[in-house]
Amino acid sequence: MMSPPTVNHIDLLVVDSESKDYRKLSIEALEAELVWHHADDGHQALQIASGKHVSLWFSNMQLADMSGIELLRLIKSVRPAVPFYLVSNHYSADEERKARAAGAAGYLSKPADHTWFEICRTTLARIKVRAGPSRRVNASRVS
After folding, report:
1. In the list 25, 44, 73, 129, which could disulfide-bond 112, CB 3.0-4.6 Å?
2. CATH of domain 11-142
3. Looking at the predicted structure, is the pLDDT value of residue 132 above 80?
4. Nearest to 34, CA basis, from 53, 59, 62
5. 134-143, pLDDT tens digit by residue?
6. 42-58 burial, b for 16+ CB within 10 Å, e for fewer?
7. What is the pTM of this model?
8. pLDDT tens digits, one per residue of 42-65
9. Is 103 left (phi over 0), alpha (psi -120 to 50) or beta?
10. Do residues 7 and 55 touch, judged by C-beta distance below 8 A?
């Protein structure tokens, strides 16, 4: 049996029609040498992720073609351990309960800021520990 390939970079995928809302986060991610991807809707996200090892997801709760929870369920059916954060334009306790019940790693409300990048760093550190020596990801660049 072949061992899984070593991950040499970390792919981050943001799914939201409002890419401008993530400008600060994208700059910090690129400075940390994360591979930044953006999709406007769920189907585009699935196309982008096809053949890639996306390590971290952020998706708006409301997408043009499906809900963020539907996208979360599609991704988790294939990669159950991948961290997937659901994002809302405005905080809602009801949406937060739904996001957590669906298995989201967390529920965030805009605006995206440095705190989100800290969440990325913490999540990527956990991925690094879980990866072990044979699948070590280079999360040290994020610190």
Report:
1. 25
2. 3.40.50.2300
3. no
4. 53
5. 544 444 333 3
6. bebbbebbeeebbbbbb
7. 0.81
8. 999 999 999 888 989 999 999 999
9. left
10. yes
Give 107-112's long-range contacts (Cβ < 8 A, gap of 24+): 108/58, 110/21, 111/21, 112/21, 112/22, 112/24, 112/25, 112/58, 112/87
What pLDDT, on the 0 to 100 scale, is given for residue 96? 96
pLDDT in tens, 32-44: 888 999 999 999 9
Residue in 47, 65, 59 with CA at minimum distance from that of residue 22: 59
Contact 15, 57 (CB under 8 A): yes
Q: Which amino acid is at 58?
A: F
C-alpha neighbours within 13 Å on the C-beta side of residue 14: 25
pLDDT of residue 143: 35
For residue 142, CA distances in Å to 27, 35, 44, 125 come to 13, 12, 27, 9
List alpha helices for the chain, DSSP H: 23-31, 42-49, 68-78, 93-101, 114-131
